Amino acid sequence: MPTTSAAPVSVPMPTVPRRRRSPEEIAAAAPVAGDKRVLLAAPRGYCAGVDRAVIAVEKALEHYGAPVYVRKQIVHNKHVVSTLEERGAVFVEETDEVPEGALVIFSAHGVSPAVVQSAEERNLRTIDATCPLVTKVHREAVRFAKAENHILLIGHEGHEEVEGTFGEAPESTTIVNNPAEARTVEVQDPDRLIWLSQTTLSVDETMEIVNILRERFPNLQDPPSDDICYATSNRQAAIKKIAPQADLVVVVGSANSSNSVRLVEVALEYGAKAAHRVDFANEIDEAWFEGVASVGVTSGASVPEVLVQDVLRLLAEYGYAQVDEVVTAEEDILFSLPKELRAKLKEAGDGTRGLGGRGTRPSS
C-alpha cells in the first residue's frame, strides 16, 4: 500500500533572551554631548478614578472572597490586571460569562444601561466602579437627550468608555472620531446640538474637533464643564513642558490605554525627538539611548508607580542617574468607594471611605 506522510508539524524555536547591549557599547556607538539626565513628569500615574477602581476590586476580594468577576479590564494596564488575577479576580468580556448570582464589578470606564439590565436578568450582584468623572458624562448624555438635543460624542468608537456613554442615549448620539469626521458629520437640527467627549482624549485634538464643528454648526453648545478629566489634562500638560527639552520620551502604559497612547502623540507634537510607550522597563530598547542626553519619563493614569521606578532604575544603569522632577500641578482629589461596597465595608467594620488619588496609597 502507498504510504502517506503526515502533515509537517511546526515546532517553534525556543525563545532566547535578548542580550542587552552594555552602557559602554551604547556610548561607543553614539557619544552623548552634555550631561545625562531624566526629566520626570509630575503628576503621572494613578488618578483618583483608577485608584478607586483598583481598591474596589481588592476590597471585594478581601470581604467577599475569590472569585470576584470583573467585566472588561478594571483599568487598562497589564500589570494591574495580572496582579488582581493572581489575587482571585476573574476578568470577563460580558456579563453572560458570569455564573448566575455571582458578584461582578463594572470597570472604571463605565457601562451602558443595557449591560446593567443584562446583569439584573442574570441575578448578578454588582459593584459599579465607574469613575465618577465618567458617570458625570453619562448623566449629561441622559439630560441632554431628554431635552431633545442631539449629542456629538467626541471619542474613539469601540472604546469601552465611549460604548457606555453612547449607550445612555443611542438614538440621540453620533460619535465623532477625528477632525475628518467633524468635517463631514450630518445632523438633523443644527440648532439643538451639544458636544460631549471621552474623558481620556488629547486636549488639543478635542478642541480642534470642537472648532471644526462650531464652524459648521455655530449654535453648537458646550457641556457645562470640561469632560476631559483633570488627570488626562495634567499629564498632557506635564509632557508638553518636558518634550521640547527631551531627546527621548518614555511613556509607561499599556497599548489599550487611551491616555497613555495620547501622551506619546503629545510628546512628539511638542518637540520630543523620539517617544515610545512601554508596559515594562524590560521592553525598552537600549538603542534608543544612542546620542541621547535627556530622557523624559511619564506614565498613563492607570499605571502604578512601581513600573515607573523600574524604568528609572534601568535608566540609571545607562548613566541617567540625575532625575529632575518637572512639576506642573498638584493632585489631591479623593473619590469614595462605590456605594455597594461601602455598605459591605460598614457591615464588616472596615472604616475605609474616601480613597483614590495621588499619594493616597503605597505603590503596588
Structure at a glance:
With 364 residues, this protein is α/β, with parallel strands linked by helices. The protein is built from 12 helices and 14 strands.
Blueprint of the fold:
Layout: H1 23-29, E1 37-42, H2 48-64, E2 68-71, H3 78-87, E3 89-92, E4 103-106, H4 113-121, E5 125-128, H5 132-146, E6 150-154, H6 160-168, E7 173-176, H7 179-182, E8 193-197, H8 203-216, H9 230-242, E9 248-252, H10 258-269, E10 275-278, E11 294-299, H11 305-317, E12 323-327, E13 335-336, H12 339-348, E14 354-355
Parallel strand pairs: 1-11, 1-12, 2-3, 2-4, 4-5, 6-7, 6-8, 9-10, 9-11
Antiparallel strand pairs: 13-14
Helix pairs in contact: 2-12, 5-6, 9-10
Report on this model:
By secondary structure, the chain is an alpha/beta fold. The chain folds into 3 domains: 19-47 and 230-327, 4-hydroxy-3-methylbut-2-enyl diphosphate reductase, catalytic domain (Cobalt-precorrin-4 Transmethylase, domain 1); 49-131 and 334-348, Rossmann fold; 133-216, 3-Layer(aba) Sandwich (Cobalt-precorrin-4 Transmethylase, domain 1), CATH 3.40.1010. It has helices spanning 23-29, 48-64, 78-87, 113-121, 132-146, 160-168, 179-182, 203-216, 230-242, 258-269, 305-317, 339-348, and strands at 37-42, 68-71, 89-92, 103-106, 125-128, 150-154, 173-176, 193-197, 248-252, 275-278, 294-299, 323-327, 335-336, 354-355. The strands form 4 sheets. The protein has a 5-stranded parallel beta sheet with strand order 10-9-11-1-12, sandwiched between helices. The chain has a 4-stranded parallel beta sheet with strand order 3-2-4-5. Mean pLDDT is 92; it is low at 1-16 and 358-364.
